[in-house]
Write a structure and sequence with these properties.
Blueprint (H helix, E strand, L loop, with lengths): L2 H8 L4 E5 L11 H8 L4 E4 L1 H17 L4 E3 L4 H10 L13 H12 L4 E6 L3 H5 L6 E6 H13 L28 H5 L11 E5 L1 H10 L7 E6 L17 H15 L24
Parallel strand pairs: 1-2, 1-4, 3-7, 4-5, 6-7
Helix pairs in contact: 3-5
Length: 282
């Protein structure tokens, strides 16, 4: 399954791993970062900085436009549902990259001689990655576990000490992005929308009724939607069998603990994205 990636690593090709912050439901921090480097990945960044920049795009877009329905596009599953079942709502999809696509552009700008590998709980990210020339491989958490097991079983891990810290573009508060409502909670929506103008839903049972009613709504409304129950942590391609609540708590603890870290030069700065266009048409 990983022959091409493994062969590329053996040949010494340079890769940047873009790791979704939900990794803590399946892997220990910072152990997994060390293991990724031991497998030959040159750099490891977290997707949190890309999420922060997407938030800025959303905030500006919603604040400068009038009454309308604004549907989040961070989840490719939601985009697929809209295109398949609600073509009349395609115009309401917020026209910006997901954090994955945004982060891939940042990585390309700053590490032009590296290729990107994205790792998350979501298989649909493979299809979304086709909209980017900057991402070569997309793995799920289940596949990452298989890859780690393969390297350890075959004694392929590099020897020596390796850093457990992320490379630059690190962010802390957007670590809750994979949780239901994580987008709206980190986007400062209170600055631009009233409490009744933000709808957070997860899973098809909750999402479909909301979308069915959208055509009748005339007010300004932001729909923060994720296709999987529980959000991204509830995806089918995680290894964890723990309840959603336990997974949720792991992500929250990870964010809380990260705020105590001295991330210094690793912290993402807005100027790092200067000149990058995150707009995307649907």
């Amino acid at each position: 399954m990983f022959e091409n990636l493994i062969n590329d690593l053996k040949k010494g090709e340079k890769f940047v791993v873009m790791l979704a912050p939900s990794f803590v439901i399946d892997f220990k921090y910072p152990d997994i970062i060390v293991k990724l480097r031991k497998m030959g990945f040159s750099k490891v960044v977290e997707l949190t900085f890309g999420a922060r920049l997407v938030n800025r795009c959303y905030h500006k877009h919603i604040s400068k436009n009038g009454k309308d329905i604004y549907i989040s596009t961070t989840c490719p599953g939601i985009v697929n549902v809209i295109k398949a079942k609600y073509p009349n709502l395609i115009k309401n999809l917020i026209p910006f990259d997901s954090p994955m696509l945004a982060m891939a552009k940042i990585v390309k700008k700053h590490f032009p001689d590296h290729k990107a590998v994205f790792i998350s709980p979501c298989t649909l990210k493979r299809y979304e990655s086709k909209n980017s020339r900057n991402i070569k491989y997309v793995l799920t958490f289940k596949e990452l576990k298989e890859l780690v097991d393969y390297y350890e079983k075959n004694n392929l891990m590099k020897k020596g000490k390796f850093s457990g810290k992320f490379n630059k573009f690190y962010n802390d508060y957007t670590k809750i992005y994979p949780l239901s409502g994580g987008l709206s909670k980190t986007m400062h929506v209170k600055d631009i929308l009233g409490e009744n103008q933000v709808i957070v839903k997860e899973g098809t049972k909750e999402i479909i009724p909301v979308l069915d009613k959208c055509c009748k709504i005339k007010d300004k409304l932001f729909l923060d939607l994720l296709l999987c129950e529980g959000g991204c942590i509830g995806g089918s391609n995680v290894n964890s069998k723990q309840p959603i609540k336990t997974r949720h708590n792991k992500v929250m603890k990870y964010m809380k603990d990260s705020k105590k870290e001295k991330i210094g030069e690793s912290k993402g700065k807005i100027v790092s994205a200067k000149g990058i266009n995150f707009r995307r048409n649907y």
